[in-house]
Amino acid sequence: MRQKTIGQQQTNKQTNKQTNKQTNNAILRPGRFDKYDLVFAIGAACPVSTILQAHNLRLMSSPIDWTDGELPVNWEETNIWRDTRFLEKINAIATKFHDFFNYEDFIVRRTYVADHYLHQDMLNTRTRIRFSHLFPNNTSWELFFPTAKQIINRRSERLLRAIDQSDRILICWAHRLGDQRNLMDAPVSDADVIQGAEIMKKIYPGKEIDFVFFEHDGTKDKFEYEKICVCDGAYRIRSNHFILETGYMAKYNYWDKRHRPILCIAEALDNISLTDKLKTLGMDES
Description:
Blueprint: H1 13-23, E1 35-36, E2 38-41, H2 47-54, E3 67-69, H3 86-94, E4 106-114, E5 117-124, E6 129-136, H4 141-164, E7 168-174, H5 190-203, E8 208-216, E9 226-231, E10 234-239, H6 246-251, H7 263-270, E11 273-274, H8 277-280
Parallel strand pairs: 1-11, 2-7, 7-8, 8-10
Antiparallel strand pairs: 3-6, 4-5, 5-6, 9-10
C-alpha cells in the first residue's frame, strides 16, 4: 500500500510549509498503527460505515452500523440536532448487547424516503439510539420486529466474536454535516471518550484498541489537519469537512454519492489496512 502525507500532491510553497508544520512530515493515520485486525464504526451516523466500506476496512455489518441518537433533553445548541449516544453504544458492547433491542423500548419517530426506499426511523426510548435504516415502511414495524431482532442478534454475536478474536482494533467516529453547512452531530466530550476507552480497556485487557474522531473544523484549509490525543489510543482529527477530494470518488466505490469523500478522512484511512486474521477465521460476512 502506498502511504502518503496529507497534502503531498500540492505545489504551493506556502501551503507546503503550513502542511509540514501540521504533519511534521509524518504519515497521517487514524490511530497508533498501520494495520488492524478489526475496524468498525460507532457513529455519528451511517456515512462512517459507507466510508470504511469504500476503503475496504469494513469486514461485516455490526448492530451499531446505520445508527445515531437523540440529543439530551437539556441540550441548548440549536444548530446541532443529533447525538451519537457514544457511551450507550460502548456500554452495549460491554454488556454483550444485553437488553439492547427490546420490543417495549421502541417508538416510530418518522417515515422518510432514502435511495428511493421508504424507511421507518425507529427510536429506542431507553438508550435514545435511533435505527434509521433497519425497518422498512412496507410493513408495520410491529410485524417486522422479530426479523429486525434476528438481524441485530446475528450482527451482535458476530461483532463480539470479532472483538474477542482480534488483537488490534480501531473504532471510528466522524461528523456528518447538515444541508445548510452546519454541524448536525454533537461532538463526543473528552470525558465520554476517556470513559469509553477505559470501559473497553477493562473488559478487553491486553488488546490494543484505538478510537478516532474525525471532526469538522471550518477554519482549516484544504491540506491542514490537527491530530489531538485525548487519552492513550484515542484521537481527534480535525479538518475542514466541506473541502472534498473528487479523486477519491473515482478511486473508491463510494456507493452513496451523498457521502462524499473528505480529503483528511480519506487519506488517513488510505494509510491503514486490515490484517488477514479475521478473514482466515471466516469473519468476512455481510
